[in-house]
Specification:
The complex is a heterodimer of chains A (about 190) and B (about 140). Helices cover about 65% and strands about 0% of the residues of chain A. Chain A has eight helices and no strands. Chain A is globular, with a radius of gyration of 19 Å. Classes of the chains: A mainly alpha (about 190), B mainly alpha (about 140). The interface between A and B is large, with 128 and 117 residues.
């Protein structure tokens, strides 16, 4: 059994379990699945700076901080006790494209040649961590939600603005992955 | 202590994130290069399961475990969903993560992603700072 759990899970199993988070949070306390809100709550809690956008009772939303803390712990448990013993299987075409860009490590979930501490004070680190993270935080708040709040919770509740947002997420991602990343990789080589 | 249950759901969810490889930068590149069905399968299935759940909750007027009513709010359209959505999409392909997976990436040993998370918090803060100029409350 444990050997089976250690294998990468099929998309159907993953999708069902992610989807079940929606009723789980609703049934546990009428909570709406939406992770990017937690970033706003962290701002409201730590650095509200008299900004009206952060003046609300974040204590009422503290459940979301417990939820994201759980995600972090879950990530730790999965990596420590349930790690896939084999290398990751990546689509050959993507592997070939990324190899051309200069990515050499295809063993783990993330390319170690980008996502490691020694890149922190390099142009690579600045683009992938600092700029990338900033765009995620700024964009999700401007859009009023992320993949969980719009694409999963919003679409589950048949909200058409969430469909618009999801299409915008995908459009941004297509542009970024196919046109921007090649330039970025050229820049950092 | 009433929040512990959300921690437990989060832990379960974090394990799913890692084991279904949703947190993988490579899976996100595959999705945007259209070379693998994996992420489409995950998100599509999740939406279907979520839709059925919400439908059943509304149809049978199901209450929370403690007997509260379950409520839904409609989302209002504004241009932020397009502009902000595009900005997030660009960041999604660079970091290989939406906000949820950021936490799971840190937990699963990619400690440097804490910088990405801090920067995402900074991005949220800057949006809050300028939201009265560009956000829906300005329209």
């Amino acid at each position: 059994m444990i050997e089976l759990i250690k294998q990468p899970w099929h998309w159907l199993a993953g999708g069902i379990m992610v989807g079940l988070t929606v009723p789980a949070l609703l049934l546990l306390g009428n909570k709406k699945f939406g992770i990017s809100s937690s970033l706003r709550d962290i701002c409201a809690m730590c650095v509200p700076a008299d900004i009206p956008f952060f003046k609300y009772d974040w204590k009422k939303k503290v459940w979301n901080l417990f939820f994201v803390a759980g995600i972090l712990i879950g990530g730790f448990i999965a990596n420590r006790f349930l790690q896939n013993p084999n290398d990751m299987v990546i689509a050959q075409k993507t592997q070939a494209i990324l190899f051309q860009y200069g990515v050499k490590d295809f063993t783990g979930l993330m390319p170690a040649d980008i996502f490691s501490w020694h890149n922190l004070f390099t142009l690579k680190g600045f683009i992938f961590f600092v700029i990338g993270g900033f765009l995620v935080g700024f964009g999700t708040r401007y859009a009023g939600g992320c993949t969980s709040g719009h694409s999963i919770m919003g679409l589950s509740n048949l909200q058409w603005p969430s469909l618009v947002a999801t299409m915008a997420f995908m459009a941004g991602g297509f542009i970024s992955a196919n046109f921007l990343l090649p330039v970025i990789f050229k820049l950092i080589q | 202590m009433k929040n512990i249950k959300y921690l437990v759901v989060g832990i379960f969810f974090g394990i799913v994130f890692v084991k279904a490889e949703i947190i993988s930068w490579f899976r996100i590149q595959e999705m945007f290069q259209l070379t693998s069905f994996h992420m489409y399968g995950v998100i599509g299935t999740a939406v279907v399961v979520g839709m059925i759940s919400v439908f059943l909750i509304k149809k049978f007027n199901i209450k929370t475990f403690s007997g509260e009513a379950i409520t839904f709010e409609d989302k209002k359209f504004n241009k932020g969903q397009i502009i902000g959505g595009l900005i997030f999409g660009v960041g999604w392909a660079i970091t290989g993560a939406c906000p949820g997976p950021l936490f799971a990436q840190i937990g699963s040993g990619f400690g440097v992603v804490i910088i990405t998370l801090l920067s995402a918090i900074a991005g949220t803060w800057v949006y809050g700072k300028v939201s009265h100029k560009i956000g829906p409350e300005n329209e």
